[in-house]
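User: Can you help me understand a structure? I only have the sequence.
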Amino acid sequence: MISDETVSFKVEKDKSVKAKEILKQVYEALEEKGYNPINQIVGYILSGDPTYITSHKDARNLIRRVERDELLEKMVKYYIGLED
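Assistant: Let's start by predicting it. Here is the structure, written out as tokens:
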């Protein structure tokens, strides 16, 4: 049976991980290798497949330190002006 109630989703906070900084480093590594960083990061977030991210400058390992749902949460907050 399908319920039409809203499910609450909470993201655990890990203070030691700085998602914004990691995302910037991954972006730069992808750009240096000649990839379209936005397309590659979106592909990774949607699929969970780390091969979308280059291993150049350890970017693949860096991005795996941040949960994909945390990345999405930060992006949505930034987009609607709730986070700097």
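Now, to help you interpret it: The radius of gyration is 15 Å. The mean pLDDT is 87. Let me know which part you'd like to focus on.
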